[in-house]
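Record type: ASSEMBLY
Status: queued
Input:
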Amino acid sequence: MTRPRIAARMAGIAPFHVMELLARAQALEAAGRDIVHMEVGEPDFVTAAPVVEAGRRALAEGRTAYTAAKGLTALRTAISDDYARRYGVGVDPDCILVTPGASGALLLAAGVLLDPGERCLLADPSYPCNRHFVRFCGAEALGIPVGADTRFQLTPELVAAHWDARTAAVMLASPSNPTGTCVPPAALAGIHAEVRARGGALIVDEIYQGLVYDGEPATALAGGEDVFVINSFSKYFGMTGWRLGWLVAPASHVREAEKLAQNLFLAASTPAQHAALAAFTPEAEAIFVERREAFRRRRDRLVPALRELGFGVPVQPDGAFYVYADAGRHTDDAYAFCFELLEAAGVAITPGIDFGAHEAATHVRFAYTTGLDRIELALERLRRFLGR
Amino acid sequence: MTRPRIAARMAGIAPFHVMELLARAQALEAAGRDIVHMEVGEPDFVTAAPVVEAGRRALAEGRTAYTAAKGLTALRTAISDDYARRYGVGVDPDCILVTPGASGALLLAAGVLLDPGERCLLADPSYPCNRHFVRFCGAEALGIPVGADTRFQLTPELVAAHWDARTAAVMLASPSNPTGTCVPPAALAGIHAEVRARGGALIVDEIYQGLVYDGEPATALAGGEDVFVINSFSKYFGMTGWRLGWLVAPASHVREAEKLAQNLFLAASTPAQHAALAAFTPEAEAIFVERREAFRRRRDRLVPALRELGFGVPVQPDGAFYVYADAGRHTDDAYAFCFELLEAAGVAITPGIDFGAHEAATHVRFAYTTGLDRIELALERLRRFLGR
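Status: finished
Output:
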């Protein structure tokens, strides 16, 4: 029997390599081994009680029907108010679309902006899904190699140097996954100006926005409303499994994004939207701040310890819950290194290959999404594994 | 300031026209008018109590983290068991991907199967999102005009006649939105054979599957595992706002669909997945059966009454909760007719234009997603509006 052909686009969509590693970790655990999980890009906290309670209440009240495609007005207003309160930036609630996770927001932004044959510039390394959304739309994701000298972020100069006639957009992530670094405000303004001067689109992934440990809280929306901002209730607000995020789009593009949302999603989860309303209460905020401090303590323990173990961490990560480490003193095959570390020492981390091509063979990502006690155990195991 | 260009694909993605009508209906309601809503493609029942309770329990137990991209093993197994119990068909749980609504399943199927320049055949009229998923992937949705003679469905002959070198897939919906008609088993087998002989893909939207009022329950999976089946917890299981559906893919395509799910969604909602487990309990099933009977009674009241009012309903709808009616005796501009009916009589229905081009100007869709008392009121208002 002839099988239906698989679409050509699928050759450009890679699976997460860490999934193979996770499968092996789970097999080891099933066989009785203890594994320290530092490969997972998800907070190790359950959703905060006030948010869970709001979700349970919404269900008890029968809030199970579709919302409008853009989401509940009350939630879009609450997000807008939060931009005003935290960042002093006015955002029209009409320009906010609540989406099924940041994933949904990325799909809307890419779908509205990128045609086949066009190019979107982004940093290499960066979050793999970002380039896959671009590819899904038939456009090319041009990963620009970045290093410690630019805090693993694009710069106005890099954008200008790589822009060509095909380029339609630039995508940044601040803080970045896997590097945890932010785009400094001056660089962001410069990139915005370069993109604007060329009539292109600037897309900024701010899903780790609340999880920044140094410096002032910032949003790219402060630079003007002609930017596409991706955000999420998953990380700072701790609602991963609920699948809720949002897109802020320029007024000129909102109607198109809404049309796409109607067709591609219908709407985001209704119980999740009602639950998220409670994420903006003082009770929830107190929990989020406490958890952020826990992440900060983990970072402050992990980064110097990794340096002592011979990993290169040339710039201090500003936020998220990742350390992107140069393992070049230990290996020239980071993928194999991650599997050996798992098998021999019971520590699971993510190989660089999941984030791009640039120096991927010598880099690994540590996620500090596990408690300090487990981080200590991982460090002890690493010490022995590396014979130090 | 130059605005970022809107992607060319967006010209092929239409908004739902009914949204304009809904906005007007809401404005009238805000001004104190009573409107009978027969435009809404959503059951008027809240989610059944056992399902809601399971969702609340999952939240209380802290089930708020990501699941695997394909969904909970327990849920995929429960879906597989349900295929065995209801339809006597064996479906490997590994071939089931739980998705954010049927929307997610449609995106996966289109993404894995359709490249730019390729063609997917579907019926005109049909659910608008189906053709928009095809277009989003850069492929062409060729709407084939169908009428009462084929129960508003494609036939093997129509598929054979319209297949060309560009054609990669055929998409059916059984029961169909807007017509409520099923593809008869012999026609389905014939279409499957035509598609198979050409090495194409058959995609069957079965989201209204549980809501069939006549004939034996059926699934396209009975015809072989080389079919892509889209399904949903929204309609029969009454979980619209939770956004949960599934895709059954051939074993040859599961890995690709999973890769796409990892990148485009990460996973479906965790609380929704836990809640859906309770949809397969006897307590929930009793509620679903009772609700199905309520829909059947509405259909049995509405169809003859519409015929008496001069609407053409040439074939009895088998299922879903729609009547696709020929309003040609009353209008040659169904879009204007729907607005006039709303303004003058306070009855909201959907114009044919939302479902395609074929005879759209003389057709309207009535959704019986409101109680019999409201349906009686709508009929009385229609009678006066039409002067009968």
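Annotation: Chain A has two domains: 8-46+284-385, 51-280.
Annotation: The first strand of chain A starts at residue 36 and ends at 37.
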